Automatic annotation (TrEMBL), chain A:
Location relative to the cell: Endoplasmic reticulum membrane
Any one biological process term the GO annotation gives: protein N-linked glycosylation
Segment forming the signal sequence: 1-22
Pathway: Protein modification; protein glycosylation
Gene Ontology annotations for the cellular component aspect, listed alphabetically: endoplasmic reticulum membrane
PANTHER family hit by this protein: DOLICHYL GLYCOSYLTRANSFERASE, DOLICHYL PYROPHOSPHATE GLC1MAN9GLCNAC2 ALPHA-1,3-GLUCOSYLTRANSFERASE-RELATED
InterPro entries documented for this protein: Glyco_trans_ALG6/ALG8
Keyword Endoplasmic reticulum: yes
Similarity section: Belongs to the ALG6/ALG8 glucosyltransferase family.
Protein name: Alpha-1,3-glucosyltransferase
A GO term, aspect molecular function: dolichyl pyrophosphate Glc1Man9GlcNAc2 alpha-1,3-glucosyltransferase activity
Predominant cellular place of this UniProt entry's protein: endoplasmic reticulum
UniProtKB/TrEMBL annotation, chain B:
Membrane topology, as annotated: Multi-pass membrane protein
Name of the molecule in the record: Alpha-1,3-glucosyltransferase
Pathway this chain belongs to: Protein modification; protein glycosylation
The keyword Ribosomal protein is assigned to this record: no
Superkingdom as given in the UniProt entry: Eukaryota
Location in or out of the cell: Endoplasmic reticulum membrane
GO cellular component, one term: endoplasmic reticulum membrane
Native organism: Acyrthosiphon pisum (Pea aphid)
Key words of the record: Endoplasmic reticulum, Glycosyltransferase, Membrane, Transferase, Transmembrane, Transmembrane helix
Amino acid sequence: MTSSLHVVITCVKLLLLPSYFSTDFEVHRNWLATTYSLPISQWYSANHSEWTIDYPPLFAWFEYFLAQIAAFVDIDMLSIHNRNYSSNATVFFQRLSVIITDFVFYYGSRKCAQSIALLVKSPKIKKKKHMDESNISVFVIELLLIANVTLLLIDQIHFQYNGFLFGILLVSISHILKGENYRGAFWFTVLLNFKHIYLYLAPAYFVYLLKHFCFRKNIQFAMKRLIKLGLIVLGVSSISFGPFVFNGQIVQVFKQLFPFKRGLSHAYWAPNFWALYNAADIGAKITYKDYDLIQNNNSTSMTRGLVQEFEHTVLPSITPQITFILTIIFMLPCLYKLWKSNRNPIDFVRCLILCGLTSFMFGWHVHEKALLLAVIPLTLLVFTSTNDCSMFTMLSTISTYSVFPLLFKPFEFITKSLLLLVNVSFLYNTGKFKSLNRLEKLYLISLGPLLLLTEVGWMVLRFDQRYPFLPLMLTSFHNSIGVFYCWIKYYLYYISQ
Amino acid sequence: MSLYCDTMIYKNLIPIYLKKVLDEKLILMIAVLFRWFVSLHDYSGKSKTPMYGDYEAQRHWMEVTVSLPTTQWYFNSSDNDLLYWGLDYPPLTAYHSYLNGLVLKRILPESIQLSTSRGFESKFHKLLMRYSVLIVDLLIFIPAVCWFFRQFFKIKNNNQMSQTMTIAMTLLYPGLILIDHGHFQYNCVSLGLFVASVASMFTNKTIFTCVLFSMALNYKQMELYHALPFFFYYIGFIYETYKKHSFITALKTLSILVLSVMITFLLLWLPFISDPKQMFQVIHRIFPLERGVFEDKVSNIWCLINVLYKLRNMNNHTMATICLMTTFISVMPTCLDLLKNPSKIKFLLSLINCSLSFFLFSFQVHEKSILLVAIPVLMYSPQSVFMCTWFVTLTTFSMLPLLIRDNLLVPFISLSLIYFIVHYNIEKLISQQKETSKLYLLRNLSLFGCVILTFCAIALKPPPKYPDLWPLIISVYSCMHFVLFLIYFNFSQLMLQIPKKKLY
């Protein structure tokens, strides 16, 4: 049954082949060209294009490996002199590489769904009825994971490789859930060396492994395990970073990995705390300075085009340091709670979710896709408790909606809105909406009018020429309220457990 | 034994759960979603100068109907070159083009500018055209299918399949999606009207049936494939009324029938009937005898015989007579049986048999005409889901050469795979025995043949002497299947015993 599910999902992805793709497509094509044509020493310093590699080395190696295959498909896509090159063969190859590497995600989902079902249902497993139920819960969790609409929109249309990265995360989580902590740590380190955004989740791993794996008995026992874990982390990292240290490129690599010269918010504000902050700033401007939105074009440009800095006028400007400190401060309570809890992997998953969500709320230059860092682990808990279930329903729906502005082409309008509708109806039919209270239901329903207003109404009212940026602001403001609410609710739930 | 039971329950558990979760609303959304996914792909004749394809034909009709007065639509003139995609469908198609053209005139006027807009292509235009198909599909075909199955399950509820499953199997049928939303045509209009007319027949609304079917006929003349069963069913029906009630009641029914058909035709042909020259020109355009016996590679008998003996050399009129004769012979049994026992299930079977006979034996058949057979088969599918799905899968396969030409290979493979998986899981759900029957083996072999041929057509270059080798083999392979299915469906109709009181 699940194998037929994989085939169906893969077929859907194939159907989406001719969809619109963003500049990320060119970014990844450029990385293929860079790794194929240039020596390792120039990978992170190549400046033939504005899209120099900014992922950790394992991802560069992954691109290098893909490029070897791409050479058989269309050698022109590997030329660094080509710009915005997208021949049919190139599109087909790159899309197919996403679809095929997604099988890692399927594998991780299967592993994780099975491990979580064992954990949740373990005391009652002997009774037949419960066995049936757990079979269904394994299936539903797997389905919700691999048919995650946000991931589908981001990977298959917008173009990125999040699927297989989340697959590695799930493999790692499943090992932790089964108590195989070394393997869990190993896969998480591998993941970090593919994409460093997963550093957001690292505190939870660190605390859980330190307290519940190392400091279990005496200090000697702890040191032994700690050293072993340290060796795993160092070993993996040295393999991936080693060649760059050897070539003296390591400083350049880190400069690429942590670019603080980017703005607080992305071109389109991710629905986090800073979106509310920006909105408050503009609101204050309008009230106190009689600010004219139409005349001043400087403020409109911050929501369009490439990455740009956004100067707050009324409220104090935010520096990377502030966001960093805020993130740490708000992570501490849940990490403390994890430290104090008895050894329960479910608590670890919840802490993981909260770490992801907190960094999403307060992080510097966060993308809306980062909400998946919380949604994917949250999917595992849909059958654990009503609170987890309601949180999943809310957050997964908001996360899907929040990536809509990325897919702004007319052909994608029906694709994205119908996919969201199918997803919501599925959640409704499986009874997930019963876990929501009236306010939450109302909030989710209000997404419908918002979509119609921002995508259709704006054009019909001919506001798109005068206020082209307002729909985006409205969307991120609306979504950030939902995310903020979820964050507070889930945090309180976790702390007060 | 108990262990076996447990595994059975376990195996079927998830399909049962899914059956509960996937209700009709969700199925409809998914059906629309797949239609849109196919819309993203290429259409027929994209950027292929000078003639392009069916997409350009439809656009050209919008251009002609909006720019020219009704009297010139079907006539050759300096403004209307009939050799360049001249209008060759009945008036309702022309009116539909006119409506679409009016909308385009408001939104994108340069796309229907007379004569300068030939071969007009743009992303936005593609979007509008795709929307136009999706809208009529949503308004006509999808509601018609839902309505039909609701009526069907009211009359016969001892089926293997549930209503939702049948609707899913019908709306996810790849052939129609690929032709309408990929290749680009408006088959969903005529087929939707046809399905609606059968649905209203199932509710015994005679006038409605006649009006809807006449409209279908006036959208595409190919609906004539379905006309004979309607005719014989109603003749049989009137005869039964005469026997049961009186001559007057029968006459009343007959006159209602004739009147409703006549009035519908009259209204639809209103702009053309004033002048007999107009009328004959339209009829001449609709039934072009000067074209060959078949186009490209069609999976019918003539294409099969053509392999051995070149039929194209024969006189068109002789050929047309032969076609007429053979078609007449092959529809005889089913029509006479229907005349004798006018029951609704027999009517459905007769629709299959007639349209399949027409497809196999008649003159000027397109490969797309197989859709006219596939839809009645899908309507009959609750009665024998196994055979029907097998047949329907082959109909999609028979259009493969066309789909490859249109660059629709990826959606063809994806949709067919999805369709097969949905069917496979439904099969597991409804049949409790293990699949050991010889028929299953045969089916799997036949579908495996399709997979092999698909692979050959994509990957292997045909020898230079026979550039059309794979399309030909595909059409011969499908044709042999269709002949066997014709025999099978004829048998199921003739063997079907209807208790006397359960007629109508």
